Amino acid sequence: MKLKIERPLCFFDLETTGINITNDRIVEMAILKLHPDEKIEKQVWLVNPEMQIPLEVSEIHGITNDKVADAPTFKEISKIIYNFIKGCDLAGYNSDRFDIPLLMEEFLRSEIDFSTKNLKTIDVQTIFHKMEQRNLTAALKFYCDKKLENAHSAMEDTQATFDVLMSQLDRYNDLEPSMSFLSDFTTRRKTADFAGYIVFNKEGEECFSFGKHKGQTVDYILEKEPGYFGWLLKAEFPMYTKKILTQIRMRKSNLQK
Description:
Layout: E1 9-16, E2 26-34, E3 40-46, H1 55-61, H2 65-68, H3 74-85, E4 89-92, H4 95-109, E5 121-123, H5 124-131, H6 136-144, H7 154-171, H8 179-186, E6 198-200, E7 206-208, H9 218-224, H10 227-234, H11 239-256
Parallel strand pairs: 1-4, 4-5
Antiparallel strand pairs: 1-2, 2-3, 6-7
Helix pairs in contact: 6-7
């Protein structure tokens, strides 16, 4: 089944120094850009993370400190990556919970304000887990009868993600091949900050999803406990989460003027 898109869709995968969205860095990024006319572009970048890659992580994806020693930093290529995906929707495997939040952190560190207005995303892992409950290697075997020869290579994983989605659309008649449907279908819970610290309630209000104020609206807590905002900005939360909190606070201040 052909995927119906109105603007380019970028499938992407990140290899990183670890799994901490706030502290870890990208060491490789691959993008498969699908255009509405079915044209495909591919890009791969090795990235110097400006920190040590733990040995146990290198053993997983095969990218060592020596391999990225002469690679550009993310900041040095951030504008190239930004321009390549600007105006596109995004798709990946476990991307809503990991790849997209970490990518947003890298952009903010590079002083690029990536706008998520009107952005739609597809998390292929969510389709797989809702339908079959397995990992990417099993998904490629199940849907495409292919073996993932080089798992944890960014482009191999990106290509596998693309292939799996195309096969999922062919297999499941109740999956509509549109960005709106697939984005809604693969979104576990509507969040304001990607990392999931700020979620929307049934009324569409931003609420905290963690800690002592879990379930409370951000507006209410900022009004009743203004010191909490200062603590959040100093604490180890993703920069994008802090950006969203600041926007909410500024919005509230403007309404009170």
